[in-house]
Specification:
single chain; mainly beta; Immunoglobulin-like; 3 domains; 4-stranded antiparallel sheet; 4-stranded mixed sheet; elongated; Ig_sub2
């Protein structure tokens, strides 16, 4: 028999919930504590410990709650409209469409893995993710799911530039002139910067509107040239290989 002097304080602990989480209703009656779940959720699964404590000490018992999903849950045909891998150019606006044939009015959401943010200005409407302009840092996987995460599908977006360097490979005779052109097919204003990977640009080099001109080429001008085009939404690069041929080496250009 429990006397008032040694009446225990009875309460429940959870080994899986964070301290900030609220346990279900803990109903205590006549020295007994009952943990009540009004509507069981998957997050309720875990180990729960009943603790009884008074001046003489403490005793506890642990139970494990296992939550099984209801059988016969309807499967939905959640699909991506179009290919599962798409390639776009920098700055292009894109639309990714996800539909459920079985649930035409289903609430569909879009997200990126690991809580990465969607691109700036993105919006979702009727299963369509609209991105006003795509940039390289937002390339990768996009996840379409029903609002309750019952089913998810994935699509991979690759972002490339339409930067064109011409010619990409050329042979030029020593003493002749060299011209390389670097153009970005974009509606955004951009700047172009030239460099030489294995050395410095010739003192004779001149740059204008993406075009690199070198007069009186020498053997020191041979090598790989790098063009970097930069806009307010990112940068792209392209390369050109230049071979300088001497006048008396017997080879034809």
């Amino acid at each position: 028999m429990v006397t008032a002097r040694y009446a225990p304080d009875v309460f429940w602990r959870s080994e899986t919930r964070r301290r900030s989480d609220v346990l279900p209703d803990d109903v205590t009656e006549n020295g007994r504590s009952r943990l009540a779940f009004d509507s069981v959720q998957k997050s309720d699964a875990g180990r729960y410990t009943c603790v009884a404590r008074n001046e003489l000490g403490e005793t506890k018992e642990t139970v494990e709650v296992i939550v099984n999903e209801a059988s016969g849950s309807p499967e939905t045909d959640l699909t991506i409209v179009g290919p599962s891998r798409l390639t776009y150019t920098i700055g292009q606006s894109i639309e990714l469409t996800c539909l459920s044939k079985d649930l035409p009015n289903a609430q569909i959401t879009w997200r990126r893995p690991n809580r990465q943010p969607l691109p700036p200005g993105s919006r979702v409407s009727n299963g369509v993710l609209y991105i006003p302009r795509i940039t390289p840092e937002y390339a990768g996987e996009y996840i379409c799911s029903l609002a309750n995460d019952f089913q998810t599908v994935f699509i991979t977006v690759t972002v490339t530039s339409n930067l064109v360097i011409s010619p990409s490979s050329t042979r030029v005779r020593a003493g002749a002139s060299l011209r390389l052109s670097c153009q970005l097919g974009s509606s955004y204003p951009y700047t172009v910067e030239w460099s030489k990977e294995d050395g410095v640009l010739s003192p004779q080099a001149r740059e204008s509107n993406g075009v690199l001109d070198i007069r009186q080429v020498t053997s020191a001008d041979a090598g790989r040239y790098k063009c970097v085009a930069t806009t307010d939404i990112g940068s792209s690069e392209a390369y050109a290989d230049v071979i300088v041929v001497g006048e008396n080496d017997g080879r034809c250009l």
